[in-house]
Amino acid sequence: MSTGAQPAERRPVPWRLVLGVVVLAAALVLIFQNADEYTVHLFWATVTMPLWVLLAITFVLGLVVGWMLKTRRARRKG
């Protein structure tokens, strides 16, 4: 006996989502495999930190810049 409920349609997974997951996975592997101490010289400051922290900071800064550019482009179009 049928309850009248139809199965949900399967939509294809967007390629941007797949690419994003692959890039995130690669970044996480890179970050967690680099635990050595590293000295960073930026202008007048010198900081020693684990390399994974530096990579994580760089990754987050890249996400922020990408997000900012995306919102700027969206404002210019519309």
From TrEMBL:
The keyword Secreted does not apply. It holds the Pfam family LapA_dom. It comes from the Bacteria. Keywords: Cell membrane, Membrane, Transmembrane, Transmembrane helix. InterPro entries: LapA_dom. The chain crosses the membrane at residues 17-35, 41-69. One of its GO terms (cellular component) is plasma membrane. Residues 33-71 form the Lipopolysaccharide assembly protein A domain. This is Lipopolysaccharide assembly protein A domain-containing protein. It comes from Cellulomonas persica.
